[in-house]
Specification:
There is one protein chain. This protein has 553 residues and is of the alpha+beta class. The protein folds into 3 domains: 156 residues, FAD/NAD(P)-binding domain (3-Layer(bba) Sandwich); 162 residues, 2-Layer Sandwich (D-Amino Acid Oxidase, Chain A, domain 2), CATH 3.30.9; 129 residues. It is built from 15 helices and 20 strands. Strands 3, 4, 5, 6, 11, 12, 13, 14, 15 and 16 form a 10-stranded mixed beta sheet that branches. A hairpin with a 2-residue loop joins β8 and β9. The longest helix has 17 residues. The protein is globular and about 70 Å long. The two termini are 30 Å apart. GO terms for molecular function: glycerol-3-phosphate dehydrogenase (quinone) activity.
Amino acid sequence: MSQPQTGADDVVDLVIIGAGINGLAIARDAADRGLSVVVVDRGDVGAGTTATSSRLIHGGLKYLERYDFTLVHESIRERHLLFRTAPHLVHDYPMLIPFYAGDSRPRALVRLGLAAFDVLAAGRGRGRSRGLSARTVARRWPHLCRQGLRGGVLFNDAQVPWAERLCVELLIDAERLGARVLTYTTVTNLLVTDGRVHGVRIRDNRSGRTGEIRGRVTVNAAGPWIDRILDKQVASRRLNGGTKGSHIVIDPFPGAPDTCVFFEAAADQRPIFIFPWEGRYVLGSTDLTYEGDLDEVVASDAEIDYLLTEANRLFPQAGLTPADVLYSVAGIRPLPYTAGVADNAKISRGHTVLNHAPAYEGLLTIIGGKLTTHRALAEDATDEALKVLGRPRGRCTTRTRPLPGADTPDWYAFRADFARSATPFTPAQSARLLDIYGVRARRVLELVVADPSLAEVVDERTGAVAAEVVMAFREERAVTLADVLLRRTLVGLGPDMAVSTAVTCADVAVRQLGWDTGRADAEVAAYRAELRRFRPRKLDLVPATGTSEGRAS
């Protein structure tokens, strides 16, 4: 699908800088309420902060510790709405919180907080939390460290295994509603005249062409990069104070739990997770002050050692070493800048829609925000944009509007019917397609029925098929091979990061999409280069240039 074009004389209602989950959610809400919208991002949708999250849809339990009842209430509500509007992507996720002697948070206080949370979540929860004795914890999680164990609580939260797909579905829905999204397009400057911001200057990263997009309101939703967008053009205090969060991905290990375990790190009393994820385990995350290059964020050796040490302490049989790390994921949380904070956990996880008027009319900046509450942030931002435009707020429908993958009267009935009727696919393939695409899995099926060669398996581990590669480029706005592997089919997030699969998928693009072999080789090389930030173990075990049958080196 070609990039949408914006004529020089066009003036849209909203120009949104940033196609992460917040920028896309704003585009969807604003387009749904009748605004003309263009979104600009220098990379792919959801390729920044969104793709480095913990993939948990928190009900807000952590925020009770800071008495942020507004954020807790908002998080509970938004989690509840996501269960309804995206049931294919958001799932129940039980979580053990063990208590140990010496924990900085008294057991009684944690239980009191959980009781308060259950009250706040009444009618919107997924079952009440349940207190567990030390004996029960030891029996149910037999490999958990027993030294100093004082009991625990089983808490019900939620997970979105594929946060990247949330972004893709927001993109699809926003475009259905009339929004236009320009990826791989860099905002080089704001258009500022006499104290008014009236759009952006842009450069297409691939062609080098430049242009302007003029807008009545410009929304700076660039996450950790918001200050960079304003730099030297808009006088402003520092707005972003994001902290670095790193995760590591490992295979199942001796004593690995079958639920998420949310526990206090001995080194710094920070709450961290160990949780099952797509057949592997994620450990994370860190929460470090970061003043480095926002474009070069990589998990450090010290962070990896910290996470492994804490996992080995909690699960004494694990014996994890750096050699067990399949890859790591690091990103910057888009938090508000807060001077003089000794404990980063105390920085607010809420969001603010900052109107720069009267100094700079027509400019809004989004500060903060998190995965769980992206829809609420979008509603607030659209409300403010409509206020600036002098238009009525109108009715926001995103509280009930299903995402494209859940656009069916009965998701569970559709799932059962697809599993029975999608005969070209194995049961495992059908289950995976449903988990990633929801009802849009039938579009993959339609492509295979129309061209049986697209049933070719391109990734043996997952069973992903060639039709998914074609659909990613033609219907889901993928531009690069990395977009397909890391943010559409997700096969690149497997244990080997699809290093070999990349060549197979490039060959599909040669046969089906008209790529020449030069582009195919360049895309494979670019994909491997993008993987460097993950520090993947597999990358050093294969040749630097991959080839496949029919494409000689």
